[in-house]
Amino acid sequence: MWKVTDASVVLPGTVLCNLSEPSSLDPSMLLDSSPSTKKAAVHIGPGVRMLEDRSTLVATQAGTVRVVAEKNTVWVECNQRRYVPSLEDMVVGTIVDRYPDSYKVDIGYHEYATLNALEFQGATKRNRPYLDAGDVIYARVIHVSKQTEPELSCIQPGSNKSWVSGESEYGKLGGSMNVVSGAMSAGGGVKSTVGNVVKLSTGMCRYLLTSKDNILHYLGSKLAFDTAIGLNGRVYVQSSDPNITILISLLLLKSMDVPKSGHKQLVDQILKAHF
Fold this sequence. Notes:
The protein is an alpha+beta fold. The chain has helices spanning 202-210, 215-220, 242-255, 263-274; strands spanning 9-10, 15-18, 43-44, 48-50, 56-59, 63-68, 73-77, 90-98, 102-106, 113-120, 136-143, 151-154, 171-172, 185-186, 195-199, 225-230, 234-238. It is globular and about 55 Å long. The N and C termini lie far apart (54 Å).
């Protein structure tokens, strides 16, 4: 039984849901609820923890509860910069070290994540990408454990687009690839090496990914650029003009200090002053 509604404000320790009462839950929130288990399955995101009774979900941080019914997901949204990985998170990471069969990737967590060298769409031992320290990648989190470092993958389930073609959603950002933003491409798509990583709050990045009316959409109607948005609080921006890349990066940082209702006005003011 849900104890809160979407967009409710919660504090650490607030009970969000009791999974042992499936009959009281919204059916759209159930992944699997059988009479034998009497449990509802829900994807848990940042800021939510299951207690030892395996039935109670509680908030671990102050913020706003967000519920995406169609994805059976619940998380607590806040403007923190510290990132804690969750399964299937899309992240923007930087290669920090290379080994014969894997890479170490900085995703903003207190431990580096591991990326297997074959975790690319269509990669084999003879035909695989070779990354260097400093390269930026877009990946998803496939393993999280308290005992080991997070594991990443650049394979998109259900896709047959090879990393060689540059059409895969995940992989190296920049270079000759057409970045598809985690799922946003603004201004028609740009192939360029002029890229920059912007560090925002995790809440802001989640807002950019879930909102259909945000600052990147305003900018995309006026400028040509591509972005890759990570739930780890990092956004990769690239365009054919380094000045545009810098301008968009600064606008994203500035938007953190402006109410979301004022983002369109902020874009209009800055673009009017520069163009």
